[in-house]
């Protein structure tokens, strides 16, 4: 029997090298997120969203809606599925446009500043790249950084945002500056963060460990300004070393694995659990503002 030829580990990296980082940005992002780093990108986007809780104007609004504290799993699922729809089918596809429309409808219900929306978008550009630089089996290549920037700039334009950074480096500088100005403690935002960490402890493979251990190791992956803004104790040096070692060992194992040929989506990782029989994109998310009048979008006269 003929032996099947094993593809080289850099198969997808070579494929990316044949593509245009701007013209083929959606294709490159699909390779990065669904073939090269599906678990890592999902984790990094979760930590990106987690960072936004430390900006009180964002964290307090999320607390007042009750979505993150009382319906944490559903809020996580809806966010993951909407992002997946846009990433999997493309921003210009029917399903991508439906997901974008649903996201914009939700944002429009609340008095969210354009600065806060730009900041959230910047975390999606910057945090996954930094995560992979530190914990991935390889760092992102330049073409992947350019493609990520181009994709989220286009998403930002479709959200109606102006003044978006033009490069990955500018997104990173913008994110860091915004956090330096706006990170701060609020007990309500801390409740949102606590609820999110409790949910994280139920995701495979973390559900095999005591929730307290998962929480401590998760905090060990966070930087000190973020920990201080959310009021969490700083991890010990052994905790940081343990968390880093586990991820380094995982990266070393993945580096020796063949390239993944079947795409993996967020819904395939066992984290999305509210829709075992499928879902309607137009029905995802919330449909009426549930927070105080202060945070609701005022209706035009």
Brief summary of the model shown:
The chain is mostly helical. It has one domain (18-257). The chain contains 14 helices and no strands.
Structural commentary:
The protein is mainly α. It has one domain. Helices cover 61% and strands 0% of the residues. It is globular.
| Helix run count | 14
Unreliable stretches (pLDDT < 50, length at least 5) are none
Find the structural class using helix and strand composition.
mainly alpha
Q: Which geometry do the CA atoms define?
A: globular
Radius of gyration, Cα only, in angstroms?
19 Å
Percent of residues in helices comes to: 55-70%
Q: Topology as H/E string? A: HHHHHHHHHHHHHH
Largest sheet: none
Q: Can you count the beta strands? A: 0
Number of domains: 1
End-to-end Cα distance, whole Å, is 75 Å
Overall pLDDT metric: 93
Strand content: under 5%
